[in-house]
Amino acid sequence: MSVPRIELRGVKKAFGPAVVLAGVDLRVMRGESLVIIGGSGTGKSVTLKCVLGILRHDAGAILIDGAPVETVDRRAFLKQFGMLFQGGALFDSLPVWRNVAFRLTQGRKPLARAEARAVAVAKLARVGLGPEVADLYPAELSGGMQKRVGLARAIATDPSLIFFDEPTAGLDPIMAGVINGMIRELVSEIGATAVTITHDMTTVRTVADHVAMLHGGVVRWSGPVEAMDGCGDPYVEQFVHGRAEGPIAAVR
What we know:
Layout (H helix, E strand, L loop, with lengths): L5 E10 L2 E11 L4 E5 L6 H9 L6 E6 L2 E2 L5 H7 E4 L11 H5 L12 H14 L16 H12 L6 E5 L7 H18 L2 E5 L3 H7 L2 E6 L2 E7 L9 H8 L11
Parallel strand pairs: 3-8, 3-9, 6-7, 7-8
Antiparallel strand pairs: 1-2, 1-4, 4-5, 9-10
Helix pairs in contact: 4-5, 5-6, 6-7
């Protein structure tokens, strides 16, 4: 049986008396696109931060390629992944090409300036942005263009593992559709393992192979995206269809 690229076993995380993760079990197989859904405050971002080592989980196990995350060489692991942040997280003081090539110019063996710029321009072209954008600054770009720059940066190192944090947040429906399509295409093209956290069901249906719903600090349901609508779980069905009535109480 194949070893999962990422596996969480009974992962718990609390902040003082507030329990966010109460025993999360997840498996992401190599080359799979997993989307984690759930309402605000259900622990999606905390789960991602625990996997990345930004937060230390309180109990349970997180395995990367079968090895406990605590034993994984952090430098080697970080070289393997790319990330598209919810707010873009571009450096305002750097031109676009330097944002895209940022990781290529850092570390022990940085690329020369000309080579890094050439890679950045190529990645920008891959997300539909021309070379004229390379020397602009983030403030000169629209929200959709900034998101594309963030996506170009996420794939700049041809990562084997990519994380997407609310990739369509703040975008209009048309641009959201463009970004979703690009994510699906790029993940397939690179052959990467992808983990996306979102509450946008259009994103789920476009990019997911498998879906996991977090609620109450645990994975309420997980399965293939095509099984989601008819899974029979009242929490999933309420969330998926955006119903006001159901077991999930509206936050007032």
